[in-house]
Amino acid sequence: MPDNVVKIGIMSREDYKHRTIAIAKGEYIPRGAEPKVWFESLQSMAQVLNSENQELLRLILEKHPQSLKELEELTGRSSSNLSRTLKTMARYGIVELEKNQRRLVPRVKAYDFQVEFGIRRQTH
Fold first, then answer.
1. 97 with 90: CB under 8 angstroms?
2. Does residue 123 fall inside a structural domain?
3. Model confidence over 75-105: pLDDT tens digits?
4. Where are the alpha helices (DSSP H) in 2-108?
5. In a domain, 121, yes or no
């Protein structure tokens, strides 16, 4: 899978907790093809990847803003809103905030997404 594709998994908090404990105990070894990013629900994923934020990612890709201030001017969004959104996306590996002198430069790391989920309880 290309580096720009993020594989997203949907798993309940309880199942994710059990999975994490099993990994820590060495009882479960994640397969290479498994998602690296996990959301608790489709709704929580939709909050991060809503249409407004997808447009933000497109704008960063196309305009290459060199600071959050420049991105603020391009989008009309407040710096606090942009900062919060970008930090959330950075936690999920979708963007990175590169430090360049005294500025944070937003860079899109992933722009294609694959979502994987099931309705059976996870056993690992």
1. yes
2. no
3. 999 989 999 999 999 998 899 999 988 888 9
4. 13-24, 42-48, 51-63, 68-75, 79-91
5. no
